[in-house]
From TrEMBL:
Signal peptide: none
Keyword NAD: yes
Family, similarity comment: Belongs to the class-I pyridine nucleotide-disulfide oxidoreductase family.
Protein name: Dihydrolipoyl dehydrogenase
Xref: Gene3D superfamilies: 3.30.390.30, FAD/NAD(P)-binding domain (3.50.50.60)
Presence of the UniProt keyword Heme in the record: no
UniProt domain FAD/NAD(P)-binding: residue ranges: 50-143
Transmembrane stretches, start-end: none
Length: 275
């Protein structure tokens, strides 16, 4: 267990990249502006751009227009007309829709506060105005950490912050992606379980998606968990607890999981089952 905790601390000490928000626009389609990485947890949300997830969305009637820029918007006769252009001088087109949801992200608005003029380096910030994912549960944990900093022992584990996309078929991501680990030279194993093989999912007639575990190749410490499927946002909670306390995939598998439940997929997804 001490070895697992030391391994977890190594990842916990790494500060996350700064982020600005979610680069997407939704009307009757989802438009991604040049496949931007500006989502608050873009490194963990790469599954959004996977071919599998695109196929799932397509079945639901969603049209994906990747690498597309909206150049102009006009409201006329109760409709909104969007002029679009493909990246790097691509083809132009017009999309008409009833409603446009602008969700292109957000940035901290601290420039007008004059903090740089005060000259007091003891002023600290938490939440969306500092680095890390712009998520409510992230800001809440930072607030708790700030309270304890006064006593000299604040704690903030950015590695264990789940990111969730709340749509009809949810996406939940936690920890590292394979690409990050390869670039860092970390040896790892993966386990993946298709939702269609889960008894509860079959009963619910919702069998789209997958559950994926990424663990350290030597000591089995959980490095990342990525879920696409029904109730993914709820299912990621068990993985968050496991990662926060440096559990191995075997620890998760040895825990009793009631049958039939969606949470059973945590057992079937560990690398020793599907490596």
């Amino acid at each position: 267990m001490n070895e697992l905790r030391q391994f977890g601390d190594k990842y916990r000490d790494a500060a996350p990249d700064a982020a600005t928000g979610c680069a997407a626009e939704y009307h009757l389609s989802l438009l991604s502006q040049n496949d931007s990485n500006s989502h608050p947890a873009s490194a963990r949300m790469s599954s959004l751009r996977s071919k599998k997830f695109q196929r799932i969305l397509s079945k639901q009637g969603v049209t994906l227009m990747l690498n597309t820029e909206i150049t102009e918007a006009e409201k006329q006769d109760g409709k909104v007309y969007l002029k679009t252009e493909g990246a790097r001088g691509g083809q132009e087109s017009t999309v008409d829709t009833d409603v446009v949801l602008v969700a292109i992200g957000r940035v901290p608005t601290t420039s007008s506060l004059g903090l740089n003029k005060i000259g007091d380096e003891s002023i600290k910030c938490i939440g969306d105005v500092t680095f890390g994912p712009m998520l409510a549960h992230n800001a809440e944990e930072e607030g708790i950490a700030a309270e304890y900093i006064k006593t000299g022992h604040g704690h903030m584990n950015y590695h264990a912050i789940p990111s969730i996309v709340y749509i009809n078929l949810e996406v939940a991501c936690l920890g590292k992606q394979e690409q990050e680990l390869r670039e860092a030279g970390v040896k790892y194993k993966t386990g993946m379980f298709p939702v269609q093989e889960n008894s509860r999912a079959k009963t619910n007639l919702d069998t789209e998606g997958t559950v994926k575990f990424i663990t350290d190749a030597e000591i089995d410490c959980i490095l990342g968990v990525h879920i696409i499927g029904l109730n993914a946002g709820e299912m990621i909670a068990e993985a968050t607890l496991a990662l926060e306390y440096d559990a191995s995939s075997e620890d998760v598998a040895r825990k009793f999981h009631a049958h039939r439940t969606l949470s059973e997929m945590a057992v079937s997804s560990r690398p020793s089952h599907f490596g």
